[in-house]
Recover the amino acids of this structure.
């Protein structure tokens, strides 16, 4: 069963990837999508078994992997509650994204490759979440990194896509450095990489100390910190987040699957999987809270100024991941996983919805050229609103009614408050970030769907209105010239000169086809009901204890305490959500000129946020450029200038003058040299033999 | 004698040698076929030997011994480590012949003879059990390589072969003197006996340094690595494959067979030197690789970085480190060989190694792009490929010796990803801008047949490395046992907190961590 779930996507990826043009588009798409739907259908019963209770954890061994001295690693598939949650998230979102891509990628000339990558990604992600040891987890970890690299760079003719793909891989590798050292350290300390064994032995190591890079440190603290660096890379936390916004160069379904719902949550999953370890390292937990809260705030501030619809959602993802981390940091692993679960639905929904908007707007991604789309693409509008209600956490405290994000985000904030200490700081930061979340999410909705159309100024729309060369481009099966190129039928856009005056430029956006809308609608159901249905199992004190069943360090006391927080804490998320909504309404509906006045007044602040706190510029200046400079210096000055000059070249000059030697070599003495050498060797050896 | 009833090692030495002589006297076409058949026969013999190898049996198997004059004996025999390296050699050899099939048009007979002679010498190096027999194989391997670069190389081949020659000769002279002293001291030329012989500690230092001079050049270790980029750049494709694939492994094999078991005290004493040079090499050559504009130079520099993991792993003095180092040797042999083949494929079409001249190959050469991607990822050490197994185990072993060295070596995985992906992007991704590049056809059947077996081996080694780890396990265990007395303690110095504190910590955890488990 679990073997089927995990390996069907791999098999499909191989068939579609190697078959490619030989088997054609439709078979490749059928194989991959079919495999994913089967995987998904098999995953839900497992998950529901754990929700209902009665299911127990299992480990299915497959094959010997690494065996060296005390290290003994097998390929095996672990299924427990934590895995089951990830199984449904990964297979559900993945199968929906596969279906959605039938529509979105319809005119792409390279579809089998795209679907093969998607399925390959799913396989790697499933290997990650079913890992029973750290090495297999690392296999999945790197596998999803590879798939992410390939998909970000899917449109490989675009320089920006290639740059983004490399950046994603290399920045993730910085995190992997920590992860690998963490694995090595764990093996050194515990003599095993088996996760259950490590977790069982971890409490016994509390209070021990170890030397690392010449420093004397608390063992569990340094191990957890190293592993967490890996999580920071994959989950785009502050400092290692720079790759995620650039990853939006990939096709939008990829952003929904990999860079919102699944891969980027791998870090949260890892911390939860190893939660008993983190529980023994309070300093590391403090660091997790700090990074989580800082990322949560940082990304939310940046999201308020971005104009590219996908980048807003990308920073939003980054920010939501911050919530998950500080929840994990305060010990509310159930709440962290719950937010991971609900976030997967509503964030995938928002991305796929954004994809539908981009599709309707002829690949225009800049919200400044949107506006007034509510009437043109009503279904997309309503599902995006559902997603926004979910992410902003709309619900009524005390009544037990609310969208998915209401349940999970409130659980996080309440747990953080109840945990006290650092947690309360995180609560305040999280509450402020919730205000920003509400603001940027509604800003997105208002800019896109409300107001007057501002389409005419868009190059893409202009391009669509003069479709002749656009058709040429498609005839050649070209990659997109500058921006996203989704499947799109220019002929469907009616051009009427009487509509030009209203800012639409005479362009008529159309709703996406049903093959794209149905997956979004399914996700919308999740975004609305997932919190309501599953909060008891994920975060309630009694329910959680039974549900998680030891697969993570569920803290029933904390879960209990989080329900006992003062009522002002309960209502804070609702209030800040309304404030955010009000600010967005004020600035983008009531008085559309207000943002301009604001940015003029706070120019430097605006520039700081717009340029994402200048992280990219900073990293370029201190890492990228010096690396290339140093490489050139070491090569020209080191290898050529020093080693060769005083080494072989110097020897040639010293012995008999380089020119003479080279001259003799060139004039056919090569064989002589070789012969002399051979004879010399043989003679010397013979002499030695006889002598001894 | 041998378990198979016939002297398989001698046969494996004789087949290519005989074929080499034949090649000298026949026409081009016949020479190609002779070489291909001979190498395939050796591959088949190698497989027979692998299947016949008794894992967990005697340390030295398939032994042959014929006394010659003096103490000199024709003694052959292999352990698991040698078996794996011989398999690597015989596996790559037919691929090299295939890679030269169309590319070599002048003096084909001599060329094939050189390769076949090289195969004999390589197998000889790994199979020799007599000190001087080893030395002859080890140094004579230089000659065919020297000829291959000097005759069929690029425009600057004379300089490259001169540099190659000078570096290696310097080391080998010192090694020969050390060997003569050892034989006088121990009274035997038998390598297995010498591996158990305890040389006086003072002498070990000098002997170790003499061997180090030779092996460090062959590895190559920083700063005696500068011959490698030049040799690779000038060598024909197949020459690069065999140079990177097998010749670079001889240094590592030398450390394994001589320096570590024969001079354990000196090895421990010079651990810092090896570690220091390895750390410098990883960072230094990776950065240099980043700025190369010549594909072969880039891969050559990356080889130096990978070999540094081998040296550091070997001198970690523990099972994971040494097994990891051997796996890196095998994995790198396959992957860098394959990468040079990939370069060769497009070099044959456009006759330039300049990275900037390419771009957009994914459009007109998708099958090539797939293979190149696989080998790029393997070179980067992606789990599921051969190099991951080696690098992971190797650095895991290094970590137990020193967290600093492990940390620096691990930065190599970041830089490695940077320079390889940057290379791949410039060659394979992007737009097709040059018309001559646009006209390049995808892989021919012959090229496909060269790359596919390596790809399969790379994945096999990455997913089920047990096939390769099992034969070497016993030998590495024996080696670590031999080293145990000299092995320095690692820098981790784990100290368990006071028992009372631990209990308190555990109790505290139970209270706050809840009844979660």
């Amino acid at each position: 069963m679990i073997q089927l779930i995990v390996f069907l996507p791999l098999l499909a990826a191989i068939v579609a990837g190697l078959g490619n043009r030989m088997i054609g588009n439709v078979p490749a798409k059928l194989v991959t999508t079919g495999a994913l739907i089967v995987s998904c259908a098999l995953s839900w019963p497992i998950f529901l078994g754990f929700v209902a209770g009665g299911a127990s954890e299992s480990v299915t061994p497959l094959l010997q992997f690494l065996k060296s001295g005390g290290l003994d690693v097998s390929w095996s598939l672990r299924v427990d509650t934590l895995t089951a949650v990830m199984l449904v998230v990964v297979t559900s979102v993945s199968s929906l994204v596969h279906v959605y891509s039938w529509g979105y990628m319809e005119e792409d000339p390279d579809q089998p490759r795209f679907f093969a990558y998607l399925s390959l990604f799913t396989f790697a992600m499933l290997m990650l979440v079913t890992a029973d040891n750290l090495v297999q987890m690392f296999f999945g970890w790197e596998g999803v990194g590879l798939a992410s690299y390939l998909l970000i760079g899917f449109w490989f003719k675009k320089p920006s896509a290639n740059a983004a793909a490399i950046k994603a891989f290399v920045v993730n590798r910085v995190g992997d450095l920590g992860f690998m050292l963490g694995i090595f350290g764990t093996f050194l300390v515990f003599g095993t990489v088996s996760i259950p064994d490590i977790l069982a032995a971890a409490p016994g190591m509390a209070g021990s100390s170890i030397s690392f890079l010449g420093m004397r440190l608390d063992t569990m603290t340094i191990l957890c910190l190293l592993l967490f660096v890996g999580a920071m890379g994959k989950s785009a936390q502050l400092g290692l987040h720079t790759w995620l916004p650039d990853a939006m160069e990939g096709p939008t379904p990829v952003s929904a699957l990999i860079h919102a719902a699944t891969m980027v949550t791998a870090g949260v999953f890892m911390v939860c999987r190893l939660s008993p370890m983190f529980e023994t390292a309070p300093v590391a937990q403090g660091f997790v809270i700090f990074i989580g809260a800082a990322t949560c705030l940082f990304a939310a501030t940046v999201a308020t100024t971005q104009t590219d619809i996908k980048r807003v959602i990308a920073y939003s993802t980054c920010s939501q991941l911050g919530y998950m981390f500080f929840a994990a940091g305060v010990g509310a692993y159930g709440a962290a996983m719950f937010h991971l679960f609900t976030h997967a639905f509503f964030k995938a929904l928002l991305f796929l919805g954004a994809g539908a908007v981009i599709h309707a707007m002829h690949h225009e991604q800049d919200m400044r050229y949107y506006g007034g789309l509510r009437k043109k693409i009503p279904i997309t509008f309503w599902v995006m609103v559902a997603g926004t209600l979910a992410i902003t956490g709309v619900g009524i405290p005390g009544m037990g009614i609310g969208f998915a994000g209401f349940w999970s985000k409130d659980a996080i904030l309440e747990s953080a408050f109840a945990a006290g200490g650092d947690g309360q700081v995180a609560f305040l930061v999280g509450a402020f970030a919730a205000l920003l979340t509400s603001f940027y999410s509604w800003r997105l909705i208002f800019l896109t769907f409300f107001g007057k159309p501002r389409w005419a100024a868009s190059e893409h729309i202009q391009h669509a209105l003069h479709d002749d060369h656009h058709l040429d481009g498609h005839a050649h099966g070209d990659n997109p010239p500058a921006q996203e190129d989704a499947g799109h039928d220019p002929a469907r856009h009616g051009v009427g000169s009487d509509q030009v005056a209203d800012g639409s430029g005479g362009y008529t956006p159309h709703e996406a086809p049903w093959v794209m809308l149905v997956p979004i609608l399914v996700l919308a159901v999740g975004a609305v009901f997932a919190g309501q249905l599953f909060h008891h199992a994920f975060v309630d004190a009694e329910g959680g204890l039974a549900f998680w069943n030891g697969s993570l360090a569920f803290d029933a006391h904390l879960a209990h305490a989080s329900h006992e927080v003062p009522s002002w804490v309960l209502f804070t998320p609702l209030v800040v959500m309304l404030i955010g909504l009000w600010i967005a309404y004020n600035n983008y509906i009531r008085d559309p000129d207000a943002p301009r006045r604001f940015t003029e007044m706070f120019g430097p602040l605006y520039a700081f946020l717009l340029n994402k706190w200048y992280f990219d510029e900073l990293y370029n200046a201190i890492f990228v450029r010096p690396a290339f400079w140093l490489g050139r210096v070491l090569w020209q000055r080191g290898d050529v200038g020093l080693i060769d000059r005083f080494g072989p070249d110097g020897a040639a000059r010293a012995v008999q003058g380089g020119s003479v030697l080279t001259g003799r070599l060139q004039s056919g003495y090569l064989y002589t040299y070789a012969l002399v050498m051979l004879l010399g060797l043989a003679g010397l050896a013979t002499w030695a033999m006889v002598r001894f | 004698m041998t378990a198979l009833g016939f002297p398989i090692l001698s046969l494996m030495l004789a087949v290519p040698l005989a074929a080499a002589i034949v090649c000298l006297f026949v026409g081009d076409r016949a020479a190609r076929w002779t070489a291909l058949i001979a190498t395939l026969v050796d591959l088949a013999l190698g497989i027979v030997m692998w299947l016949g190898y008794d894992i967990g049996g005697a340390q030295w198997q398939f032994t042959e011994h014929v006394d010659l004059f003096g103490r000199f004996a024709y003694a052959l025999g292999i352990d698991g480590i040698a078996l794996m390296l011989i398999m690597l050699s015989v596996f790559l050899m037919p691929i090299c012949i295939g890679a030269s099939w169309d590319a070599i048009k002048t003096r084909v007979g001599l060329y094939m003879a050189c390769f076949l002679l090289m195969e004999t010498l390589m197998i000889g190096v790994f199979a020799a059990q007599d000190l001087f027999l080893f030395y002859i194989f080890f140094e004579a391997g230089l000659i065919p390589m020297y000829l291959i670069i000097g005759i069929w190389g690029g425009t600057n081949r004379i300089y490259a072969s001169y540099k190659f020659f000078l570096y290696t000769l310097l080391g080998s002279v010192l090694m020969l003197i050390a060997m003569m002293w050892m034989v006088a001291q121990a009274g035997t030329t038998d390598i297995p006996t010498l591996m158990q012989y305890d040389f006086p500690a003072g002498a070990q230092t000098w002997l170790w340094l003499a061997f180090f001079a030779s092996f460090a050049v062959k590895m190559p270790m920083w700063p005696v690595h500068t011959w490698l980029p030049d040799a690779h750049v000038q060598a024909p494709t197949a020459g690069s494959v065999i140079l990177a694939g097998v010749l670079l492994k001889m240094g590592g094999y030398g450390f394994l067979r001589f320096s570590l078991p024969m001079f354990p005290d000196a090895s421990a004493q010079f651990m810092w030197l090896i570690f220091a040079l390895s750390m410098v090499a990883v960072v230094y050559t990776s950065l240099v690789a980043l700025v190369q504009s010549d594909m072969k130079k880039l891969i050559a520099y990356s080889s130096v970085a990978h070999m540094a993991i081998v040296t550091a792993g070997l001198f970690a003095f523990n099972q994971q480190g040494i097994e990891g180092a051997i796996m890196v040797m095998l994995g790198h042999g396959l992957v860098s060989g394959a990468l040079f083949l990939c370069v060769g494929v497009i070099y044959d079409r456009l006759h330039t190694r300049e990275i900037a001249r390419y771009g957009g190959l994914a459009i007109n050469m998708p099958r090539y792009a797939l293979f190149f991607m696989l080998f790029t990822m393997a070179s980067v050490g992606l789990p599921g490929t051969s190099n991951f197994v080696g690098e992971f185990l190797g650095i895991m072993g290094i970590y137990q010796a020193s967290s600093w060295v492990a940390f620096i070596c691990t930065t190599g995985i970041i830089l490695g990803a940077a320079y390889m992906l940057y290379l791949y992007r410039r060659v394979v991704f992007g737009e097709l801008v040059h018309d001559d590049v646009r006209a390049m056809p995808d892989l021919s059947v012959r090229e496909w047949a060269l790359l596919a077996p390596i790809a399969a081996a790379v994945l096999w080694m990455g997913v089920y490395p047990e096939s390769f780890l099992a034969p070497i396990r016993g030998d590495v265990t024996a080696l670590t046992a031999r080293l145990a007395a000299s092995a320095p303690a690692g820098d981790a110095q784990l100290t368990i907190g006071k028992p009372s504190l631990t209990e308190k910590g555990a109790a505290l955890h139970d209270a706050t961590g809840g009844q979660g488990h």
Observations:
- The radius of gyration of chain B is 23 Å.
- Chain B has 23 helices and two strands.
- The mean pLDDT of chain B is 87.
